[in-house]
Amino acid sequence: MNGRSFKMLMDTLRRARRIDGMMPQLPPDLTNGRTRVLDTLYELGGYAKEDASRRRAVRVSDIADDMGATRPGVTRMVCDLERDGYLHKSASPTDGREVLVELTEHGLATHRVWYEEVYEYTALLLGEAGVTEHDIEVTVRTVKRLLEVVGEADLTRWQNERLGRKAAACGSAEE
Amino acid sequence: MNGRSFKMLMDTLRRARRIDGMMPQLPPDLTNGRTRVLDTLYELGGYAKEDASRRRAVRVSDIADDMGATRPGVTRMVCDLERDGYLHKSASPTDGREVLVELTEHGLATHRVWYEEVYEYTALLLGEAGVTEHDIEVTVRTVKRLLEVVGEADLTRWQNERLGRKAAACGSAEE
């Protein structure tokens, strides 16, 4: 593994940012950001009546944390999504200051069309293009490791220390 | 390959968007966007004196196309980068209306520190975490295939046709 390979990986991941824009258009009241809020809420278990065993209370802050987004941004999208009938908010029964969020039937149905039907079809096309389950597993594992490694490494500190040493080396050379 | 695997891949790629924000801080006059312009220019061969055989004329539109960004946005960043000494612009010798772009020595040196030193170090850490060259190859190939497949599939049309058929099915049920 060398810097060149790593760069190829980084460039590929940057290119991959286009992918959401290439997927089918959403209903006009759903931006990519709002769709991600819906999906994060679904993944965290905040859906209305489907499979009560997996359902759990989801707070706005849970969604923001999972998305790696700011709380005010997510709060705004949650309000818009409530107005358009995709989810509803309620006060927590245990703590009145806490707001819980849940998908409505409409939100759940939209999620189903978007993520199940379109994704199943795309998965089929990918399989036909020769991409295997194993390829996906390797890709997901590699990107996760990358995020873990970079998250733990504190590269900014490493760079500053390097720059510090460089400056020190220049200083001593002048003496 | 099923929709669930595909979704895992998409979620992973969305998470990977954080990666640039986790890399070391750039010099204060380099945003992530400007760094990408510098790197795209480098990759397209627009560097000043290094390896003349790989060097070639690069236009602003080449950079924008390669980045998948808008031309006005890239033009603005190119002007900022010229002002800060990272690149310089010149009129094309063959077509005076065309503007060619080239890295300065300062731009090339900055690129070297950023992409070579930091990337080599990160690649080392990734290797220590068990990520192999093969993992990177699979990841890069998988994401490229994904972008190709989705780019060619016209999923929006597929979805509209599906919605059309659904609407037609509802219509006939009402008769």
TrEMBL record, chains A, B:
<dbReference type="InterPro" id="IPR036390">
    <property type="entry name" value="WH_DNA-bd_sf"/>
</dbReference>
<dbReference type="InterPro" id="IPR036388">
    <property type="entry name" value="WH-like_DNA-bd_sf"/>
</dbReference>
<dbReference type="InterPro" id="IPR000835">
    <property type="entry name" value="HTH_MarR-typ"/>
</dbReference>
<protein>
    <submittedName>
        <fullName>Uncharacterized protein</fullName>
    </submittedName>
</protein>
<dbReference type="GO" id="GO:0003700">
    <property type="term" value="F:DNA-binding transcription factor activity"/>
</dbReference>
<dbReference type="GO" id="GO:0006950">
    <property type="term" value="P:response to stress"/>
</dbReference>
<dbReference type="InterPro" id="IPR039422">
    <property type="entry name" value="MarR/SlyA-like"/>
</dbReference>
<dbReference type="Pfam" id="PF01047">
    <property type="entry name" value="MarR"/>
</dbReference>
